[in-house]
Amino acid sequence: MDASADQQHLKANCPLQTSFFKEIILQQKKNYQVDIFNTYEAKINLNDLKDYDVFMWTGGLGNIYEKNEFNSYQLKIAEEILKLNKPIWGSCWGLQVFVTVYGGKIIRSKKPEFGFSSNIHIKKSHPVYDNKLDYFTAPGHHYDVAVQLPKEFIILAENNYSIQSIYSESGNLFCTQYHPELPFSFIANLMVYWKKNYLKIMSEKSFKNLVSELRLLEINDIYKRKTELINWINYI
User: Fold this and answer.
1) pLDDT tens digit string along 43-54?
2) What CATH number does residue 105 fall under?
3) Residue 48 and residue 41: Cα distance in Å, rounded?
4) Which helix (H) or strand (E) holds 90?
5) Nearest-angstrom CA–CA distance, 17 and 4
6) Domain that residue 62 falls in
7) How confident is the model over 179-214, as pLDDT tens digits?
8) Total count of domains within the chain
9) What is the dihedral of CA 73, 76, 81, 87, to 10 degrees?
10) Is 182 strand, coil or helix?
């Protein structure tokens, strides 16, 4: 995340995305130490990265194909992490950063996914998807998609909108375009905060129905939202 995105979350009375990762990790591994790095607050000491066993990369509001200082620094950190050959999880922006580092291509989507990504199909088996339905819906909110993957990556899941998860055995890397760590209701709350933006592209009725559906998806949890993230934490 960048500073402006985190500030918007706080104004919307929503937790920061990193807090959900930390909560899920500590639910599975109570004795783990979890540190959160916000690259906009201070430059990371790259030499300290070797002290960590696992890395997780959150979502964000940027466009990784734009040439700016923030993106350049994101890519530099990702390159340094990859050199360590430690397990890496990336969600949404995380996927886009690592695909770019490997030489893949991210572009603006012709049709973004708002609120959730539906009918995600698991194409290849992987322990991360144990006990997950072959077709499922997950929290998702993105304008950019991966259209060209480097040879290191295997597509594990996708839907009609985009590639939804990828895996690189050589890079010890698993990434999703969707957000198993984020509650559907969290995305609903953010959408309500930014309501005026969505009413430019959908009707009031459609917006209300979408928000209601997101809240019901979280309550019912028929797709076992956190399954693959929990599997990954235990798998590594």
Assistant:
1) 788 888 999 999
2) 3.40.50.880
3) 16
4) strand 88-91
5) 13
6) 3-235
7) 999 999 999 999 999 999 999 999 999 999 999 999
8) 1
9) 70
10) coil
Q: How many residues does the chain have?
A: 236
Here the tokens at position 138 are 């997950």
Which token pair is 82?
A: 């990859």
Cβ atoms of residues 21 and 181 within 8 Å? yes
Residue written as token pair 């990828």: 166
- Owner of token pair 């590594």: 236
Tokens for 191?
């959408």
For residue 30 the two structure tokens come to: 């109570």
